[in-house]
Design goal:
Elements (H helix, E strand, L loop, with lengths): L1 H14 L8 E6 L2 E8 L2 E5 L20 E5 L2 E4 L5 H8 L8 H5 L12 H15 L8 H8 L16 H4 L35 E7 L10 E3 L10 E4 L16 E4 L8 E3 L2 E3 L2
């Protein structure tokens, strides 16, 4: 029933020119635009195999187990969820980095210091206002989008092999010139036009985390992760990371869903009809 309602709402939005010819959905909420980019469904190879590529220094144990993942169409936010949008919905801003203290008053910073549960509360509140069905992306959707979807190139990072082109990350503390998050969209986007999929803040995904999940089968269709767990998947690296392997588009980690960190935020996703 929710999918039927969503399809009707999207048809109404299309009628009122909320879709552009590039399949970008723009939803205005309390004076802020949420820009959602359509990702056409497709397949990609996930994980790594140290026996096939023994010299792959970024093939960590948690990524062992190559498999083919096939996904249907979906939307994902062009930018990480910002402090301004979060505060407009929730009435508070939990972030530790603030534009007036760290990066200039004009910076539009990503929200951080939010737990997975708090991200869900925000999404539930947003859905009540918009009558849409926003959600967190699955881990598979996140990686497929970060890789550029069907435009996939074998880049190490989301949109480039040069980390400096696409990511805010730590060059060694104060010497780097920043010790906090930076404004969203400040680096180059990937092939889908998505910003900050590498660096700035790590991003919560909807899945439970299991280090051996990739080894459970050879093919996945719209996977949603393990049924249970004690940690949630976090992807994308952040401003405090100085290891390029930890910014690799394949890198995955798990965090307890009640944990709040000044380097973890989130990005919205939406089903496509």
């Amino acid at each position: 029933m929710r999918k039927i309602i969503l399809a009707i709402v999207l048809m109404i939005l299309m009628k009122h020119s909320c879709f552009s010819q590039s399949d970008t959905l723009v939803i205005s909420v309390r004076g802020f635009d949420i820009v959602m980019v359509k990702v056409e469904g497709g397949s990609f190879r996930r994980g790594c195999n140290p026996e096939i590529k023994p010299h792959d220094s970024c093939c960590f144990k948690k990524n062992w187990g190559e498999n083919i993942v096939t996904l249907k169409n979906f939307y994902i936010a062009k930018f990480e969820t910002t402090q301004l949008l979060y505060e407009s919905i929730m009435g508070n801003n939990p972030s530790q980095a603030r534009p007036d203290r760290h990066t200039g008053k004009s910076a539009v910073l990503p929200v951080e210091n939010v737990s997975w549960y708090e991200a869900q509360i925000f999404i539930d509140s947003l859905n009540k206002i918009t009558r849409l069905c926003f959600r967190l992306p699955t881990e598979a959707e996140w990686e497929f989008a970060a890789r550029g979807g069907n435009y996939d190139n074998p880049y190490l990072y989301a949109g480039s092999n040069n980390i400096n082109d696409v990511a805010w990350f730590d060059y060694g503390g104060p010497i780097s010139g920043w010790e906090w998050t930076m404004g969203v969209g400040g680096k180059k986007p990937n092939q889908l036009g998505l910003y900050d999929m590498t660096g700035n803040v790590c991003e919560w995904c909807s899945d439970w985390y299991d280090e051996t999940y990739y080894q459970s089968q050879n093919k996945f269709y719209n996977p949603k992760g393990p049924e249970t767990g004690d940690r949630k998947v976090v992807r994308g690296g952040n401003w405090g990371i100085h290891s390029e392997c930890l910014l690799d588009v394949r890198y995955r980690q798990g965090e307890f869903p009640d944990r709040k960190q000044p380097y973890i935020g989130f990005r919205l996703a939406l089903d496509s009809n």
